[in-house]
Amino acid sequence: MRRVLIVDDEPVVADTLRLIFQKNGFEAQSANSMDEAMACAARFTPELMLCDINMPEKDGVELISAMNQDHPTCRILVLTGAYGSMGRVREFGATLKRKLPILAKPCAPADVLREAGNLLQMA
Questions:
Q1: Which listed residue, 13, 25, 82, 105, has the most CB atoms within 10 A of its CB?
Q2: What is d(CA 79, CA 93) in angstroms, rounded to the nearest whole number?
Q3: DSSP reduced 3-state for 34
């Protein structure tokens, strides 16, 4: 079973996505901050992380950087409603060795699942 970590500072968003992935055959866990996500990733070893960008304290770019260092095989999908941050995320993504796709919230569950499946096929 594929393992997915969903990170969003809005618990209802993170939990909803976790349930969507679980109902579609994934083992999924959710976290609401960078610190919580890193602790979860250490136990769970996700193959894919869905990551929000705007979060209190440490943002999604910091989380992506830390995940790339500590879990280099984990694929990452950015899911954000922070349209003003997309340029910064794209610039950061260009420095990475692999693709960093971005989906804008709100988006259909089918779109998230399709992009997640595409990323996991590359793994």
A1: 13
A2: 14
A3: helix
Residue 89 near residue 102, CB atoms below 8 Å: yes
Take residue 96 and report the two structure tokens written for it.
Answer: 């990475």
pTM: 0.89
CATH 3.40.50.2300 corresponds to the domain 3-108? yes
pLDDT per residue rounded down to tens, the chain (123 residues): 799 999 999 999 999 999 999 999 999 999 999 999 999 999 999 999 999 888 888 888 889 999 999 999 999 998 877 656 666 666 666 676 777 788 888 889 999 999 999 989 865
Q: Where are the domains of the chain?
A: 3-108
CA distances to 15, 36, 86 from 8, rounded to whole Å, are 9, 10, 16
Residue entry with tokens 């609401």: 32
